Each structure stands twice: as C-alpha cells, then as structure tokens.
C-alpha cells in the first residue's frame, strides 16, 4: 500500500513538473516569436496566470534613460485599479524596494502587501498581496512583474523559482525588443543616407546636366545664335529629361534596384567605359575632347557579395562623373584587382587634378564615395594635386 501511494505521489509530481515545463516552453516560444513588446508582455502574463493558477498580473518597466516607471501590461486588474488609472501611475512600495535593490527572498522574489490595493476600501476583488519578480538584464534594472490571486497562498520555493525563471526570460525578451527598436532606427538612418547617395548618383546628376544644357540654350538665345545651333541643345536637354524621368520611375518602383542589371562587376565596368554618352560627355557635360577610358581586370574572376559589387560600381560611376564634370581629362583608366582576401578598385585620370587639402563644401560625390567604402567595410584613398591628375582607390576586404 505504501509503495502504491509513493508511486502515485511520484506520478503526480512528474505530471506537475511536465505541466510546468510545458508552460515554460510555451512562454519561451511566445517570447521568441514576438518582437512587438506589448504582445510579448501580454502573452507572458496570460501564461504565468495559467502556470500558477493566478488571476491577476501586471508588469512595470523602467524607461531607458530616465528610469521612470510605467505600466507596460496588465491582466484582470481589480475594479478599483482598472477604473481609476491614476492609481496605476507613479511609484509604490514594491517599485521603491526594487530600485533600492532590496527585493529578497527565495530566488530574489518577494511577496509583499500591495500599497495600491491597501489604499482601496472597495474594488479589490479580495486582493491584498502580490509576488514581485524583479527583472534584470546584465545587472541593469528592467522592471518588475507582479502576480496575485484573491485566494492568496504561500508560494512554495519551487513556485518562486519558476517565477524567477519566467522573469529571466521576460527580461531577455524586453531587452531584445529594445535592441530591435534601436536597430530599426539605425537602419532607417542608414536607409535615408543610402537614398541620399542614390539620388545624388542618379537624379541629381541628371538634373545638373539638364540645367547645363538649358543654360547653354539660353546663352545662345542671348547671343542671337541661329535656330540650327539652339535646337540640338534643347533636344539634348529633352533627352536628358526623359532619361532622368525614367530613372525616377525606376527608383520609385524599386528603391533597391540593382544598378548592375544582372551583369558581373567586370561587365558593368566595361559597359561604363564603352558608354558613348559618358565618354563623349553627352550624358553629363559636353566635353571639348572625347574621353578615352579603358578597363583592366586583374586576378582570378569570381562572384563578389552583391552589396560589394553594387557599392564598387556606384563608386566607379561617381568617379567617372567627377572626371567628366571637373577634370578636363583626355585619358582615364578603371582597374579592378581581385585578390583572395580583398578587392581593389582604382580609377585614374590625367586631368587638372585638385588640392585634396582644400576640398570645397558641397562636394557630395566624395562624401558619398567615402560613405560607400565604409559601408562595405573598406577604405577610400584619394591622391591628387593641381595639374597632375587624380588617383582614387577603394579597398574592400573579402571574407
């Protein structure tokens, strides 16, 4: 008989532990699924109530930076608190105790009299005590989880440890959600910078060329030039306008459009060098002498990460635009060197050069190229001096 009772007790204990582990697993899964903090907190409260047969719970979180507490989630608040929101604002005994670091007891969980409920005469639903579970992430104070039930009973050491485990998981989820939110903001800032570079590399350059053509046409009109001289300039401005409009439509339809258009980086650079609109200056600025441009590919050809190929192509495109607009060069070379651990893109010209220590404000092309190099994990170097041409090199390490 004694053995039978012992087996029954052991079976009941195993069932209880299996139920607890099952609920803990559901809490962990819910927290892992959710990056939305509100939904994660509500899901946790519901599972904690199920875990320990508790009815009511709420979660306080401390705001980052100020440490101010706020009610982040609640479940089944008694009427006296639910109908009077100001009672759930400000500090209280358990929060003050938590801030002092004085929450103690088994597994750092404490059962305390609720100072908010204590002030109520009616509307408590029989609640007076709650368990306070401190939330920490890497010793940083996150907040407090409170759970309660009208038929309050003393929690066993095992139940307190369970609550501590839940608090630990909840702390990790809160910190992860906050990190995700911060990374989203940083990603938005990076995306704004990327769009600014794309606009400069495409639309702004096209509009500058259109403005130049129209200024030329205006000057010809002022000088009384013949129609035969003015019409081609206006026609070129119209052609550039159409090209810029098409570029704008493409950018709107696909903000992440691939400038290589399915080609390898080597093929895209070769196409850039062979583009008559570039080498003859009709796309950007009319050239006095056609620009002779050559491309050299050295090293073992292989596929590069898409972000690297796109970034290097945009750097080459901007460098060529700068040569056309500013260098007054006759010759230019683009060299792509593929090494096992890095890739190097070098652009050289025999133009007028410039003083690298005296770069005028508004040279967004150089700023954009430097930003692109850094985003690829690489570096940009520019060597130039008046009358001696320009040497530009981007080096990007490859894992």
Q: Would you give an account of this structure?
A:
This protein has two domains: 2-183, GAF domain (Beta-Lactamase, 2-Layer Sandwich); 262-399, Histidine kinase-like ATPase, C-terminal domain (Heat Shock Protein 90), CATH 3.30.565. Helix 1 (2-33) packs antiparallel against helix 2 (37-52), helix 2 (37-52) runs antiparallel to helix 6 (157-222) and helix 10 runs antiparallel to helix 11 (364-375). The chain is of the alpha+beta class and 399 residues long. It is 51% helix and 19% strand. Residues 253-257 have low confidence and may be disordered. The chain has a five-stranded antiparallel sheet with strand order 2-1-5-4-3, with helices on both faces. The protein has a five-stranded mixed sheet with strand order 6-7-8-10-9. The chain has helices at residues 2-33, 37-52, 79-82, 93-100, 115-118, 157-222, 227-253, 265-274, 276-279, 306-327, 364-375; strands spanning 56-62, 69-75, 110-113, 129-137, 140-148, 292-299, 331-338, 342-349, 379-384, 390-397. It has eleven helices and ten strands. It is elongated.
Q: Quick recap of the structure?
A:
By secondary structure, the chain is an alpha+beta fold.
Uncertain runs are 253-257
Shape: elongated
Oligomer: single chain
- Overall pLDDT: 76
- Say which CATH homologous superfamily of the largest domain is assigned: GAF domain
Strand order of the largest sheet: 2-1-5-4-3
End-to-end gap: 69 Å
Tell me the domain tally.
2
Percent of residues in helices: 40-55%
**Structure class:** alpha+beta
What's the CATH topology label of the largest domain? Beta-Lactamase
Instruction: Calculate Rg over CA atoms.
Output: 34 Å
CATH architecture of the largest domain: 2-Layer Sandwich
N-to-C order of helices and strands:
HHEEHHEHEEHHHHEHEEHEE
Q: Count the strands? A: 10
Provide the β-strand percentage band. 15-25%
Largest sheet: 5 strands, antiparallel
Q: Total helix count?
A: 11
CATH class of the largest domain: Alpha Beta
């Amino acid at each position: 008989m004694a053995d039978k009772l012992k087996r029954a007790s052991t079976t009941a204990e195993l069932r209880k532990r299996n139920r607890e582990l099952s609920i803990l697993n559901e809490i962990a899964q819910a927290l892992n699924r959710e990056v939305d903090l509100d939904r994660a907190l509500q899901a946790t409260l519901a599972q904690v109530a199920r875990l320990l047969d508790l009815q009511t719970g709420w979660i306080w979180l401390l705001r980052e930076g100020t440490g101010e507490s706020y009610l982040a989630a609640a479940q089944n608040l008694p009427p006296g608190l639910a109908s009077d929101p100001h009672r759930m604002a400000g500090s209280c005994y358990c929060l003050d105790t938590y801030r002092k670091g004085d929450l103690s007891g088994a597994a750092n969980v404490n059962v305390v009299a609720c100072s908010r409920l204590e002030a109520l005469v009616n509307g408590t639903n029989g609640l007076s005590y709650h368990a306070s579970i401190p939330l920490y992430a890497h010793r940083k104070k996150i907040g407090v989880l409170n759970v309660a039930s009208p038929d309050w009973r003393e929690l066993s050491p095992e139940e307190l440890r369970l609550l501590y485990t839940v608090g630990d998981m909840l702390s990790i989820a809160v910190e992860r959600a906050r990190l995700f939110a911060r990374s989203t903001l940083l990603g938005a800032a990076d995306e704004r910078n990327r769009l600014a570079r794309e606009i400069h590399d495409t639309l702004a350059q096209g509009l500058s060329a259109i403005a130049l053509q129209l200024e030329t046409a205006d000057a010809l009109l002022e000088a009384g030039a013949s129609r035969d001289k003015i019409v081609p300039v206006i026609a070129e401005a119209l052609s550039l306008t159409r090209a810029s409009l098409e570029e704008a439509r493409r950018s709107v339809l696909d903000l992440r459009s691939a400038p290589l258009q399915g080609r390898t980086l080597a093929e895209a650079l070769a196409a850039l060098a062979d583009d008559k609109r570039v080498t003859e200056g009709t796309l950007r600025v009319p050239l006095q002498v056609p620009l002779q441009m050559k491309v050299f590919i050295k090293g073992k050809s292989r596929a590069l990460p898409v972000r690297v190929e796109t970034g290097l192509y945009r750097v080459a495109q901007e460098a060529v635009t700068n040569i056309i607009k500013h260098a007054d060069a006759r010759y230019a070379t683009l060299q792509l060197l593929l090494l096992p651990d890095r890739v190097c893109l070098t652009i050289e010209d025999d133009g007028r050069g410039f003083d690298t220590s005296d770069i005028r404000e508004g040279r967004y092309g150089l700023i954009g190229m430097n930003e692109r190099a850094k985003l690829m994990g690489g570096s940009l170097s520019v060597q130039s001096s008046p009358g001696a041409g320009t040497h530009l090199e981007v080096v990007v390490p490859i894992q």
